[in-house]
Records
---
Amino acid sequence: MKFLHLVVFVFAVSAVRAQAPAAPPAGFKHANATVNGVNIHYVIGGTGEPLVLVHGFGQNWYMWNRVMPELAKHFTVITPDLRGLGESGKPAGGYDKKTMATDIYQLTKKLGYSKINLAGHDIGMMVVYAYAAQYPSEVKKLALLDALIPGVEPSWSTYWAKAWWWGFFGWEPSGQIVEGKMNVFLTNFWPMVGYKKNAFTAAESAEFIRSFSVAGATSGSFHWFGAFPQEAKDNAEYMKHKLTMPLLTVGGDHSTASFLGDIGRKLATKVTEVKVSNAGHWMLQENPAEVQAALLSFFTAK
């Protein structure tokens, strides 16, 4: 009987541990802040100017784990979880990128920063563009990694027709359909837009699945896609005034590399374009060395 109790205890402890967020790299810590009426979880570490890194769908802050240690030698690195995911709040609304950008903006203000460096991947790319467009004088440099901007043509309409999952995610019942099945869903979704097989480590896969399996996170994250029509209208207004800070586009050669630079030039006047080799959409896992080199070269340049 004692042995049975021990087995039950060990299983219970393991289950609790399995639900805990991934440990950040050495020198980083987990933190939370209430901003814009929502809790935002973030990981922070390093020294120097602030560099905010914003994740996209199918991943969370941990997507940056391989490049965070080196970047932290040059910057104070901040990697938030977007509203709707993981340990961040999951309110009923506010999933348009204009509002989500304001979450991050208020977080940087709460941390005491008046001007930041900013990078975003996938959905995070849409968020950081909305940030820079709303607060252009408070962004020193901006990097856009492997995605599209709602409403920016011709790539938006062309890709929208091919990406069936965008319509599915934006469909209100979709979160309820997938709820509780994120392991099956994500492990089958990742290869659809990736290039290298098994690019994620076991720890990365486990953390991403855990983050999207937190109560409310499936539906919360799917709301990011439901806001695209409104964002196309918002972006049409933003594009009337091109960004003047230095802008970097980073596309995988098996993903957006062929047109992401063109998108950047529609948004900004000073654009540097980098194409990451042997990489699909998940470039931070498929070729982290080239992505890290591109980010360091861009953000450390005087």
---
Amino acid sequence: MPDRTQQPPIQAIEGLRLPAIPVETLDNGIPVYVVNMGTQDVVKIEVIFNAGRPYEHKQLVARATGAMLKEGVAGLDSAAIAEHLDYYGSSLSTPANIDTTNIVLYSLNKYLPDVLPLVVRLLSEPLFPQHELDTFIQVNRQNLQVDLTKNDTIAYRTVTELIFGSAHPYGYNSYPDVYSALTRNDLLQHFERCYTADNCQIIISGKVEASALKLLNHTLGRAIPRGQRLDARPIIQPATARQTLLPNPDTVQMAIRVGRHLFSRHHPDFAGMYVLNTILGGYFGSRLMENIREDKGYTYNIYSVMDTMRFDGCFYIATEVGNEFAAQTLQEIYTEMDLLRTEPVDEEELMMVHNYLMGSFLNMLDGPFNVSDVVRTLLSENLPLSYFEDFVGEVAQVTSAQLQTLAQRYLDPKDYYEVVVGAVDMLAK
């Protein structure tokens, strides 16, 4: 029996790698990544199309097309589709992603023959009914009106537009008139151009049976047509003005975003910057949290984010603070950035962050659905499956000297956009 009065020894987490992921190929050339790790009789099928913003011919058409896939096929309206899935205890979603459109199906293995053919119909003969499109436009216009009353939403929209440009797929913002300009023909054109086998990848995870793979080939492997493989190379057009103050005087808090252009996961500095971001504001014990929340009490939450996409990326610090604390909060943000540029991170803090990140990576490998999420991220950002192990190894080897060099390179205030939304006249007081 173990001695419960003694703390077990702390052991480093090592050797993290993705399990072997076999890749099958359907008759129409679609690769299928098989994450066969499940113990329960459940399977998840995620169909990924390169059909996001970088591949649009018109703004918001990617989001609208993905959202409207479930709204009807010949002989079945949206209610009948939902009822069919519910009857078999399955769920189907089309989460909005900036680079891809994903169709995610959860089903018991025994009911997969009953629900997968419906998914095939949605991906081969969607109707995009006009009345459903009208409802989509109306609902999103109304939701947008509500969102545009929120300081944090306005701040995020503004900083990304400043970083990438108002016409860039990662920088443009939705407006009521952009929604109203969408037509059914726009959706059909986007669907026919992007939803092809040559722009598609599939991940199947859970308790994967041979019959499921065979069924995939007999359905999606035959129904999704071949097409031209799409590519994109969006070019940023960043703003020149570095500070933007947007008044919203009838609010008790100001939203702050301090951000800059960065890079995608392909960049050689990504792993080191990932660690640096964690130290600055990437977890609950970060420097920004300790200083601005715990010591100063200016805010309930403050964080920093590396937002990575397939072709590019950005970095920003975000918080909401009481109007009277906005100026001091901005000053403390730049103070923490300057400390990382001028003083090396001590070994104790670096070890704590390394251990925290290794625990996070370990959680990413906990179960088939988590592993499938990792695979999806790699595929969506055009990275090999070997990237995960290489990235974990790089993170584990990051040194204090490397972090200071990266801080000097990427935490210089002159490279940052500053956005403040709220009672901005108080900043001058």
---
Amino acid sequence: MLKNIRLHSFGPLADLNWANPSPHINVIIGENASGKTFLLKALYTAVRAVEEYKRGNDNRNFKQVLDEKLYWTFQTDKIGDLVRKGQKERLSFSALIDDQQVHFDFSAASEKGVGGYSENLHTRDAVSLFLPAKEVLSLFHVIKKSRGVDKEFGFDDTYYDLVKALEKAPTQGKISSSFSNARKILEAFLVGRVHYENGQWALRVGNQTYPIHQTAEGYKRISILDRLIVNRTLSPKSFLFFDEPDAVLHPTAILATMEALGALASSGMQIFMATHSYFVLKKLFLMAKSSNVQIQVLSLANQSATFSNLAEGMPENSIIETSVQLYEEELGLED
């Protein structure tokens, strides 16, 4: 589990202390440029660096793994550019990842790597993923070539790690009841299933096959989550980072996606997501009230952070305020 999260002078995040995130679902809200995606990427970078360290035949030390992950996830030529503008203090990150204290820091003058960093770590036996707001199936080969072959900036490592995970073929065998429930919820919206064969993605419906470029954006987004379950990439030990799960989805599909995430969280998977959607918040509020899934909201505003438990009520935030404002405007038109 991720907890005791501290970020200082990390891009738009001046000072964040998140001691006890929910072990199930965590929702980050805030206006544009408040640091939501930045926070998700910071957490993802640290987790993936621990997971890739000492895995297989990789002989890199932890600093080398971390330096490369920071470089390709944030895609800045000079790593010191991640330090909050106008700050003389060093950027620092620390978090307890399972039973390990992971930290790193560096100054605005840093060129290619961190200064201080954790040592004597052991790898995690899991694969964690970041689902970006943009769908990836129709961009699959572009991402692999630009990042993996040409090594150009454009698609960062959240995209590259995801396409490599999606390439793994589905496997046979029984999955946990929670994961099975998540698949059943998603399958209610999946008329067919995305299929990868001979280097191409397609949608297969019965005996008919359709090119992936003719498949709806929202459908592809739901399908990748289903694929990551059925090919066993995601496990109860995985962390899942989800940026704008509501992007390009119809409200009914948003609700189903939240239910599926609730099923995954109940298996032990810890989920962090960022959203602007009233539908996401309202559905999670109802889930928190009616199930055993604990859902915490982190609200970022004016360089401050507030935390709330959704089971105790909807937090005050601009998403709710805007919905109320529209309702009051409608009432005004009826007067």
---
Amino acid sequence: MMEFTAQQIAEILNGTVDGNPNVKVNNFSKIEEGTPHSLTFLANPKYEPYIYHTEAGIILVNKDFIPSTPLKNTLVRVPNPYAALAVLLEMTEKQKKTKEGIDPAAFIHPSAHTGQGCYVGTFACIAENARIGDNCKIYPFAYVGDNVVIGNNCILYPHVTLYEGSRIGNNCILHAGCVIGSDGFGFAPEGEQYKKIPQLGNTILEDNVEIGANTTVDRAVMGATIVRQGAKLDNLVQIAHNVEVGEHTVIAAQVGISGSVKIGKHCRFGGQSGMAGHITIGNHVGIGAQSGIIGNIEEGRTVLGSPAIEAKSFMRSSVIFKRLPDMYRMVEELQREMEQLKKELNK
């Protein structure tokens, strides 16, 4: 990070300074590890106690934040501290030296096309009839298969694999080891064995999609598996054949989506949640970590548990779960008392 004053940062973020506008910072820090020359932020209220002890020179806070005791630090007040931090981090990222040119050890098939300003790293392979847009970065050992199409300004980190016919939009980021277009899990029982069903479709990632490390998005049996624009998939996510992930949906690590699931826009999936096949998830649905989804979920609902139920119902039930052993003992005791009463009445 270059050196900036609080006033300069406030101007970049359309914020206001509360404190010394001339204090300077040159790096970032977590709030509990702040130093006089670092910038940090407070977005989650549970971290507020740290703000009264941190040494950070500048702290991004919500414009309505009111400290319970006076602070020695300079505050930059913004509508959304986390989003403001993202702006500064992006500025810093752009200052890094970028990779350029085609490495002599890369392989590009004569029929393939790479656009202007591309970087292709050592031992990357671009196969027959592949089409890569402008300003893309293909890092070492990445594989771009036959007839793959990649838009502009995309990044493929090391060991990314794009199977034949995959379609990647503009401004996509694919992290190390992710696999796009692998065969869907399709097998038909034949006696005591399983016969493989050819997966003849493809995989489409629309614009501004980001795929985490070692995540897989399988190709369709027929048609396409589609990840719509703006969707973000974490590491170690499994997207099965013929799935459709809606626009701006976010999916945390270790989620598994079974075949032919349709997911709406702006959904949020907690880690390790799983979907049964051939179901529909509406728009703006929230799914808690480790939830098991076995049926359709209507728009706007938030669910937890396995099988998943409404989040508020699950929270109320979870309180009872802990009391079940005591409740069981009480029921047994009541049964004994009832049996004793019956005996007394029958005398």
